Amino acid sequence: MIHLDDLDHAILDALQDDGRMTNAELADKVGLSASACHRRVRRLESDGVIEQYTALVNRQLVGRGVSVFVEISLESQREDVLDAFEASVSNVPHVQSCHLMAGNADYLVHVTCTDVADYEMIHREYIALLPGVTQVRSSFAIRTITDTTALDLL
C-alpha cells in the first residue's frame, strides 16, 4: 500500500470526477501550482496508483443495457483448473468483470448484453463451454441503482 496524503486524495478525487480536466484546472481545484500538481500526478501514475485513463460509455445507448451476473462453479479448485478457466473467460464477449469468490460459487462474472436472446447465445456458445464449468447460475439485473468506477478516498 502506498501512503497518500490529503493532496493526493484531492487529486485522485478530482480526476475520478473528470479525467479530462487540464493540469491547470486540476492544480487550481486542489490548490497547487501547475508544476507541483503535474509532478504529483506523474508520481501517482508511475507508482501505479493511477492505472489508466478511460472514457465511460453509456451501455444503454450502445445496445448493451442488460446486465447479467453469472455465478460459476468449477469441478475443482485445483490450480490448473482455475488457470484454464481464467485464461478462457477473458475471451468471452461482453464480459465486463470476473471475480474469484469465496462462498457458494467459484466465480462471479458480469456480462453486459442486448437482451435475453443475446445472453442465451453468450451462455450457449461461450460460458457453458468454459473449461471446468459444472454449474452456471445467471441473474438478470432489473435496474441499476448505483454503478461507479470511482473509489471514495476522502
Keyword list:
154 residues; alpha+beta; Alpha-Beta Plaits; single chain; 4-stranded antiparallel β-sheet; 4 strands; 5 helices; 35% helix; Arc Repressor Mutant, subunit A; 2 domains
Provide a concise account of the structure shown:
Helix content is 35%, strand content 19%. With 154 residues, it is an alpha+beta fold.
Task: Describe the fold and architecture.
By secondary structure, this protein is of the alpha+beta class. It folds into two domains: 6-46, Arc Repressor Mutant, subunit A (Orthogonal Bundle), CATH 1.10.10; 66-140, 2-Layer Sandwich (Alpha-Beta Plaits). The protein is 35% helix and 19% strand. The chain contains five helices and four strands. The chain has helices at 6-17, 23-30, 34-46, 79-89, 116-125, and strands spanning 66-74, 95-100, 107-113, 133-140. A four-stranded antiparallel β-sheet has the order 2-3-1-4. Helix 1 packs across helix 2 (23-30) and helix 2 packs across helix 3 (34-46). The chain is elongated.
In terms of topology, how is this protein built?
Blueprint: H1 6-17, H2 23-30, H3 34-46, E1 66-74, H4 79-89, E2 95-100, E3 107-113, H5 116-125, E4 133-140
Antiparallel strand pairs: 1-3, 1-4, 2-3
Helix pairs in contact: 1-2, 2-3
Stretches where pLDDT is under 50 for at least 5 consecutive residues are none
Order of helices and strands: HHHEHEEHE
Main CATH class of the largest domain: Alpha Beta
CATH superfamily of the largest domain: Lrp/AsnC effector binding domain/regulation of amino acid metabolism (RAM) domain
Number of helices: 5
Main β-sheet: number of strands, strand sense, barrel status? 4 strands, antiparallel
Whole-number total of structural domains:
2
Can you give the helix content as a percent range?
25-40%
Which structural class do the helices and strands define? alpha+beta
For the residues shown, what is the average pLDDT? 96
Report how far the terminal alpha carbons are from each other: 16 Å
Number of strands: 4
Radius of gyration: 20 Å
Order of strands side by side in the largest beta sheet? 2-3-1-4
Q: Assign an overall shape.
A: elongated
CATH architecture group name of the largest domain: 2-Layer Sandwich
Q: Report strand %.
A: 15-25%
CATH topology tier name of the largest domain: Alpha-Beta Plaits
